[in-house]
Design goal:
- The protein has a single domain, classed as dinb family like domain (Four Helix Bundle (Hemerythrin (Met), subunit A)), CATH 1.20.120.
- 56% of the residues lie in helices and 0% in strands.
- The protein has five helices and no strands.
- It is mainly alpha-helical.
- It has helices at 4-17, 25-29, 48-67, 90-113, 128-153.
- The radius of gyration is 16 Å and the shape is globular.
- InterPro entries: DinB-like, DinB/YfiT-like.
């Protein structure tokens, strides 16, 4: 007999990792030329760097909210978007990417071990299931934007 919770957990993890129906975060940034991290194509409001940082901040916030009743979310919307169009240096870029990977792994561990259905005590109806699905959906949405920017910059090979 199939364990429904295991099936659901496995599907959430697939969704968090991305790639089942679309490109992953790692796919979207692979081979990105350094000089394109901070470019903003004509008519768009942000750069790839700003999207990467937005993904990092939002994922961190959803993770921390899911596990820490004392967590304070950034002020919306300013606290979720950086003003700098480009990272200060390669170290800042790598630090952001590493935090995304670390927080994603921690969210996956929380999904594996946590109660998906009980409301988070310090929330207003949220569950771990909702936070994990929101994290996956949010990241996928912005991964698509990264790919669009790369297409506009001529740096995406599908």
């Amino acid at each position: 007999m199939v364990n429904d919770k295991n099936v659901l957990t496995d599907e959430i993890i697939k969704l968090l990792n991305g790639g089942t129906a679309h490109a992953t975060f790692d796919d979207a940034i692979a081979g990105l030329p350094t000089q394109h991290r901070g470019q903003i194509p004509n008519g768009l409001p942000y750069s790839i760097w700003q999207l990467v940082e937005h993904i990092r901040i939002a994922l961190w916030d959803m993770l921390e909210f899911s596990k820490d009743g004392n967590h304070q979310s950034p002020k919306w919307p300013d606290g979720y978007w950086v003003k700098d169009e480009a990272p200060e240096n390669d170290e800042a870029w790598d630090k952001s990417l590493n935090q995304i990977k670390t927080n994603l792994a921690e969210m996956i561990d929380l999904v594996k071990t946590g109660d998906l259905f009980t409301q988070i005590p310090h929330g207003d109806g949220q569950t771990l299931l909702r936070e994990a699905l929101q994290a996956a959906d949010h990241t996928a949405y912005h991964v698509a934007e990264i790919i669009i920017i790369r297409r506009l910059l001529g740096t995406w090979e599908s």
